[in-house]
Design goal:
The structure is a single chain. The protein is mainly α. It has one domain: Serine Threonine Protein Phosphatase 5, Tetratricopeptide repeat, CATH 1.25.40.750. It is built from nine helices and no strands. Helix 4 packs antiparallel against helix 5, helix 4 runs parallel beside helix 6 and helix 5 packs parallel to helix 8.
């Protein structure tokens, strides 16, 4: 592939080059990330569904571009970007929390109309549940012996 822009879909049905994104060096893809995200504006497009499986590989490099999406007035694009964000590691999601919090606490009329407010709220709620579950597991694992000994004495 001589020109990195050849990796960008030509239309919503073009999935021919997406396989190459799985193996190409991350640094080589950085220049076309904004164009690739453009093809994720509608999650119903075949290329968007395929990109959803590949783009998490570039999670760290996508952060500034995802922040830009949250800064514009395109609720539908934000709505379709959440399935991508859900596939990011927690450390990368943490870099986007201020944007997502803003959608929940101060949604624009477009974010309310496109229901991105609802998906952001559910996303944060799910994220909080995961953190609570992890903390509970750490507490249970760390205090397992004390809990067992207390249970043995409590009759």
């Amino acid at each position: 592939m001589n020109d990195i822009f050849d990796l960008v879909p030509k239309d919503k049905h073009d999935v021919s080059t997406i396989e190459a994104l799985k193996t190409i060096g991350i640094e080589k893809v950085v220049p076309v990330l904004p164009e690739l995200l453009e093809w994720m504006k509608d999650g119903n497009w075949p290329c968007a569904r395929e990109l959803l499986n590949v783009m998490p590989r570039f999670h760290a490099e996508l952060v500034p571009h995802v922040k830009n999406i949250f800064a514009i007035d395109d609720g539908e694009w934000k709505w379709f970007i959440f399935p991508l964000i859900e596939r990011f590691p927690e450390e990368t999601i943490a870099l986007l929390l201020s944007c997502i919090d803003r959608v929940v606490s101060q949604p624009t009329p477009d974010e309310v109309h496109s229901e991105v407010y609802d998906i952001a709220y559910k996303f944060l709620d799910s994220l909080n549940d995961k953190v609570i579950d992890r903390r509970n597991n750490e507490i249970i694992d760390g205090n397992d012996k004390r809990r067992k000994s207390r249970n043995c004495h409590a009759v």
